[in-house]
Write a structure and sequence with these properties.
single chain, alpha+beta, 3-methyladenine DNA Glycosylase II, Chain A, domain 3, binds iron/sulfur cluster
């Protein structure tokens, strides 16, 4: 979505979008004390959009019971809670934290607008994504074990694709004409909702 179109969408839904995500607590990152992790708070509860984010972010994990969704973005583990809390790890500095918060706000607002325009996703779609396994993805890959993705074979790639360490772009054969349909189908399985 272009910047002007984005602004317009946020204006149209001004009363429901998140205006502010405030960074509340910053501490040294557990994985690397040279980096920071932080907790932030959105100005709205986010429970209703967690399933939408789950279906839009290919490597997201979601627990309704815990009211939490987490995913890897670049090297950061990002967790979004139903009450509007957001945590992020492995952040370089305050500047990067601000940038990540702004990106998260953008994504959250796209999900809010999606909810307002499309309604809640059906529990069946959410369940179908929960049931995705490396085997199911492997079955849809070219299965040539050509290693162009840098993995030992298609199954290892499928596992890494599911946990977010690889993307579909890392498998060049999926761009061959004969595999295009497969790529589209896997994409649809990993992220049935598109927010951009
Ligand atoms: S590049 Fe694609 S086809 Fe080749 S091994 Fe990796 S996943 Fe399989």
């Amino acid at each position: 979505m272009e910047k002007n179109a984005e602004d317009l969408a946020e204006l149209l839904f001004a009363d429901v979008v998140v205006r502010k995500i405030e960074i509340k607590e910053i501490s040294p990152c557990t994985a690397d004390p040279e980096r920071i992790k932080f907790l932030a708070q959105a100005d709205k509860p986010l429970e209703d959009i967690l399933p939408i984010l789950y279906l839009a972010i290919p490597n997201a994990k979601y627990s309704e019971k815990l009211g939490a969704l987490s995913y890897m973005y670049q090297q950061h583990l990002i967790t979004i809670f139903a009450n509007g809390r957001i945590s992020m790890t492995y952040v370089k500095d305050r500047n990067e934290a601000n940038q990540l918060v702004e990106e998260a706000r953008w994504l959250i607002n796209r999900a809010i607008i999606y909810l307002k325009t499309h309604g809640k996703p059906s529990p069946e779609i959410v369940q179908a994504k929960k049931e995705l396994t490396p085997v199911k993805i492997y079955e849809m890959l070219p299965k040539t074990n050509c290693k162009m993705c840098g993995e030992q074979g298609c199954f290892a790639f499928a596992a890494k694709l599911l946990n977010g360490e690889k993307t579909l772009q890392d498998c060049p054969p999926l761009d061959y004409k004969e595999h295009n349909k497969l790529k589209f189908q896997i994409e649809k399985m990993l992220s049935p909702i598109k927010l951009k």
